Amino acid sequence: MSYIRIRKHYVHLPYLFLGIVEWLLHAAAVYGLASLMQPEASELLGLAPIGVGSLVFYASIMSCCTLSMGVYDALVNEGFSSMVLRSLVSFFLLGSLAFTLFAFVFNGLVPEQKQLFWTIIASFLSVLVVRVLFVSVFDAKRISRKVLIFGAGEKAKTLIEAAEKEHIQGIELAGCVTASKGQIHVPESALVEYPEDWPSYLKENRISEIVVAQDERRRSEGGEFPLPEFLKAKLEGRDVTEVVTFFEREFNRIELPMLTTSWMIYSDGFKASRTRDWGKRIFDLVVSLSLAVLLLPFVIPTIIAIFLETGRPILYHQTRVGKNGKSFRIYKFRSMRQDAEKGGKAVWAQKNDSRVTRVGAFIRNTRLDELPQLYNVIRGDMSFVGPRPERPEFVEELKEKIPYYDVRHTVKPGLMGWAQLKYPYGASVEDAKNKLQYDLYYTKNHSFLMDLLIMIQTVEVVLLGKGVH
């Protein structure tokens, strides 16, 4: 098994292992420099002994900074240079900024300035070495899990294309087996001859998992669904996984074309919880009120800049659809011209939209335009984390064209969401369909831990201006 579920969210074990090792390296860096060095060297560098609380605090902050810049994804998908650049930003920019801010609240936990400088350098160098070793081992085929796809239709084709495009880590596709003589949609090179002896075939080819990706599960001219063989494979320790669940686990989304109502009913998600709702509400109030105070210095300059460029109104409001389809009024700092929607007709935002002002482009890139939405969170219309709320005009259109679209309205909309992290800005029905796959994943599996993860990773979205039109 190459994954683990933590509060219903799938986490790949190699990444979890790497994260734990790096946390220990951070702790070792701050402890080693402050306590284990020779007294003369410690005095020369201006270091002082450090307590356990400071050690844990430092290691946790540095690990959060790593997550916030998407370093682990860059490590595997973008190459070594991108990983180094993101690490530099996460350690020396975000780390320094975080410790500076926390010094006003938790001054006793933040290492001294000289000590912090040398410790961050030690952390940076040590984790670079570990990451290079990690990639060299993790890319080795000897630790990859071989997966056999049962089916050769549209579902199997979609899975193969997604695996090639999005590069599944730690997974090697062994090919497609089909008992049907019907239509074949996968490449001929991906087809594997139907095994006469399933136990021997699985053992000889080191198959760790079978993904059932048939378009139709019924008897065909080529034979029956090998239920006894799959049961035996599972009893021997191999995973037998339905294709929707495989997509959920490996891609952190629910593949919409394959989704069925029965899968949703029998799955272990999509459950309401009053305790969780109350806990989330308290968390929303604490975070939104704290941010409202912290970000207040940015509000006045934003108001002045909007007024000087295009005058009033400063605030812009729209009707959006919230939990259980209830409409509410959302507030933003105005980033478009006053006549952006002539006649009041809703228009999809486009890339490089000409209606966006110069000030508007800046506050959109920095997400300052969304600061007034903290009021919506305090009111209870929105949560801090959840699917982004959409306009009623678009919702009616999307409900007609996209199945299960209304399911996203069973949780409160949010300032930030899983779909924002995983998919660029949506400006069409097709974009809305792709984003819904991530919104459904969040709706099914959301938890306090996942909300924290989304908040941390949203830092990358803000800094890099992702998903802004």
From TrEMBL:
Membrane topology (UniProt): Multi-pass membrane protein
EC number: 2.7.8.6
Record's keyword terms, sorted: Membrane, Transferase, Transmembrane, Transmembrane helix
Gene Ontology, cellular component aspect: membrane
A molecular-function term among this protein's GO annotations: undecaprenyl-phosphate galactose phosphotransferase activity
Superkingdom to which the source organism belongs: Bacteria
Subcellular location(s) per record: Membrane
Domain (Bacterial sugar transferase): residue spans on this chain: 280-463
Matching InterPro entries: Bact_transf, EPS_sugar_tfrase, Sugar_tfrase_EpsB_2
Transmembrane stretches, start-end: 12-34, 54-76, 88-110, 116-138, 282-308
Family listed: Belongs to the bacterial sugar transferase family.
Name listed for the protein in its UniProt record: Undecaprenyl-phosphate galactosephosphotransferase
Organism classification: Bacteria, Pseudomonadati, Pseudomonadota, Gammaproteobacteria, Cellvibrionales
